[in-house]
Design goal:
The complex is a heterodimer of chains A (about 190) and B (about 180). Chain A is mainly α and about 190 residues long. In chain A, about 65% of the residues lie in helices and about 0% in strands. Classes of the chains: A mainly alpha (about 190), B mainly alpha (about 180).
């Protein structure tokens, strides 16, 4: 189980590995955005690792990279189509950058994975949960500061004026940067790597 | 002439792909430790952007009309251009890097949303890639100076890069008003 918890906390894809920066900064402006995006990435990570485990070993090594990319594209497009038909409002909130999870999922998967199936699935599940809580946290902070609400519920109406800066990309970069620094303090990591 | 200037100002300054749109952050945090590394990574992505825009120009008539297929089409063009780009620049870097660069796919998606068509694809790609390249080089120069500054350990690396990029983005936002 340690590999599962590593993905959730110690090697969190967003706050420790700094992998999902584009979803965190460019897309996640509310808690709901973070939740939808986190669940979507978890689905893509899990589904792709199962398909990769079955299909990739049957393919010649020269075509594996392109095939992995193609599997991810198909999964993300299918998911996009599903959300577009069932909850169009969610896609409107996430905007056109929804497919960027392809890039994050691609980075997180190792190209030549020979580990047992259960271990690969546990790792993907842990990373997915890591994505969910980190993106929800970032979304909630940005929504609170930028809109004065949390999950759509007004919190500071008439008390404080929301900071529109938090909704924008530059504000998102500053907030995510400070969260990464806070994570470094908590985990006693940090420092420039060569 | 005015159109060309408008496209240039929007793509390089007020709609900068990295600092205003928030794309290409992987390259911004990973490949800007030195100016040399930033130039190398930047050239690869610039080549990918120009290849992607040229493909869109050539295949403009067969772009699918349904939103779902359209997204798939643009992401696929992005991946193909990312695989072709290193062959054009002759740089021996990891193929994973080229495939996962969000700046490239982001540019293609932005062009789709804005209805950019024909040869204008290439002009927009030129402006965007120039803005992207400049940001990488400027950030690398700042990081080389930051390496000499007493930055607290927790802020070193990605956190300080993001905060610096956020401040640069705020400065560019000032040109919107």
């Amino acid at each position: 189980m340690s590999i599962f918890w590593e993905g959730v906390f110690k090697k969190n894809p967003v706050l420790v590995l700094a992998m999902g920066l584009v979803p965190a900064v460019a897309i996640t402006t509310t808690g709901l955005d973070g939740l939808v995006l986190g669940i979507s990435i978890t689905f893509v990570l899990l589904a792709s690792c199962v398909i990769n485990f079955v299909v990739i070993p049957l393919m010649p090594s020269s075509s594996r990279l392109a095939l992995r990319a193609l599997i991810l594209i198909i999964l993300v497009v299918a998911l996009y189509g599903f959300i577009l038909h069932t909850r169009p409002g969610l896609v409107a909130g996430l905007g056109i950058f929804f497919p960027f999870m392809v890039a994050d999922a691609f980075r997180l998967q190792s190209s030549e994975d020979t580990r047992p199936f259960g271990r690969i699935v546990l790792e993907a599940l842990g990373q997915g949960l890591g994505f969910i809580w980190a993106l929800v946290l970032i979304g909630v902070i940005r929504e609170f500061l930028g809109f004065g609400s949390i999950f759509g519920k007004e919190m500071v109406s008439g008390v404080l004026r929301p900071m529109s800066l938090a909704k924008g990309v530059p504000g998102g970069m500053i907030i995510v940067g400070l969260l990464l620094a806070l994570t470094n303090v908590v985990t006693k990591q940090g420092g420039e790597t060569p | 002439m005015t159109d060309g200037l408008d496209i240039f100002v929007e793509t390089v300054i007020t709609g900068n792909l990295v600092l205003i749109q928030g794309l290409g952050l992987y390259a911004l945090t990973r490949y800007t430790k030195t100016v040399r590394g930033a130039v190398k990574a930047g050239l690869n992505t610039v080549a990918g952007m120009l290849v992607g825009a040229s493909i869109l120009w050539l295949l403009g008539d067969i772009v699918p009309t349904s939103p779902t297929s359209q997204i798939g089409f643009y992401v696929l063009v992005g991946f193909v251009s990312a695989l072709i780009a290193p062959r054009l620049t002759g740089q021996n870097t990891s193929p994973e890097y080229h495939v996962v660069d969000t700046a490239l796919i982001g540019l293609l998606l932005l062009m789709a949303v804005r209805g950019v068509a024909g040869a204008q694809n290439v002009w927009v790609a030129l402006g965007v890639s120039f803005g992207y390249f400049v940001v990488l080089v400027v950030m690398a120069s700042i990081r080389e100076r930051l390496a000499l500054a007493p930055v607290p350990k927790a802020l070193q690396g990605t956190p300080i890069v993001l905060i610096t990029a956020g401040l640069l983005g705020l400065a560019l936002l000032g040109f919107r008003f």
